[in-house]
């Protein structure tokens, strides 16, 4: 789920085109459940485009799917620093925190995401985390 993605600009040099191809390749690799390969494809972008929410979000997804949860948390947090209105980044940050066992923090992020964009997936996740917190207490 990507809202903003690097698009080649008119007259963009081959380096820009190369970065765009690397982003698209990494995106396809995440979709085909090859997160470690996606991270390799993203390496140059992560070094050069640290302020691009789309790059950070894609990296966060790859980290999440490869169980590098602390790195995923940092990437999703960076997305939210750059764009606090990104409901999907909030949701996947919540999922990451859930997997880290930080259920109260996870629930807070998921509730914000749901308030911003109330879709069934977010509401189901809130119910799941709320139930786990109730069982724990």
Automatic annotation (TrEMBL):
Keywords: TPR repeat. TPR repeats lie at residues 53-86. PROSITE patterns: TPR. InterPro entries: TPR-like_helical_dom_sf, TPR_rpt. Pfam families: TPR_16. The keyword Lyase does not apply. This is Tetratricopeptide repeat protein. It comes from Amycolatopsis speibonae. The lineage of its organism: Bacteria, Bacillati, Actinomycetota, Actinomycetes, Pseudonocardiales.
